[in-house]
Amino acid sequence: MGKSVKAKKTTLLQQLINQSFLFRGLEEAWLSQYLDADNLKLETLFSNRPVYTAFLPDEFLDVLYVILNEGVIVVRSTPLDRIIAITYPGGCFGMRSLPFSYGLASRAFPCLVESYKTTHVLKIPLSALEKIYNDNESFRQRYCFLFELQQKFEYHLLNCSSYPPQAVATLLRALIYQERELGSQPDAENIYTFDLSVDVIARACQLNQRTVEQVLKGLQNVGLIASESTGDLIRVLDAEGLKEVYSATRDKVNWWPLR
């Protein structure tokens, strides 16, 4: 029994190395000096439940959340309840609420961090994170890059037009950039796949759900995306073609009926 449990926990360490942008490629023997395999536990965050509230005065986290396997984590800003961050497997969250590195300077108004879909995470203790950060330059550069990615994601949303086709395309372009930089996508056929519900798109783009559905139908009709009739998966078939919609003005998207 003991050997079986130990093997399972060692596998979690390997998954961390193989699947996480932050830990990718690190040597298992080296990493095990900082992370005790016997204490690594895969935890489940259930859907539509808050994980924590970020940016509360004088309140910080003591762990970094790394997403493995499946899941979607969103950050909702206040008071408009706008989604300003979306994190998929391979990414991590909680950096801006750690009293460490750039987290010390990442202050904002309170934001709800929520597990939008059932999500599997590993919690990395702050003490171990600091030691790895100090001892590994590659890790340190990646950790800093995560803050840059978040700023660029929010920058995309700041440029989110009130014109629905451009607004939805802006969110998709932000996700494409994020996942490409993290090395998570595209697949071998140059297709990006996102677990992205109409509700999340609507909250990120400040549109109503009916309008989002119409935009997605239009994008699908012109061959830029494919979506399931049931479920939330959206496949971006032509990331380059999506750029034209992203930069479009009201008279350039001929498939959108409303001017």
Automatic annotation (TrEMBL):
Database matches in Gene3D superfamilies: Jelly Rolls, Winged helix-like DNA-binding domain superfamily/Winged helix DNA-binding domain
Key word Hydrolase present in the record? no
- The residues covered by the Cyclic nucleotide-binding domain are 22-142
Q: Which PROSITE patterns match?
A: CNMP_BINDING_3
Give the matching Pfam families.
Answer: HTH_Crp_2
Task: Tell me which UniProt keywords the record has, alphabetically.
Answer: DNA-binding, Transcription, Transcription regulation
What the entry lists under InterPro entries is as follows: cNMP-bd_dom, cNMP-bd_dom_sf, HTH_CRP, RmlC-like_jellyroll, WH-like_DNA-bd_sf, WH_DNA-bd_sf
Q: What is this protein called?
A: Cyclic nucleotide-binding domain-containing protein
> What is the taxonomic lineage of the source species?
Bacteria, Bacillati, Cyanobacteriota, Cyanophyceae, Oscillatoriophycideae
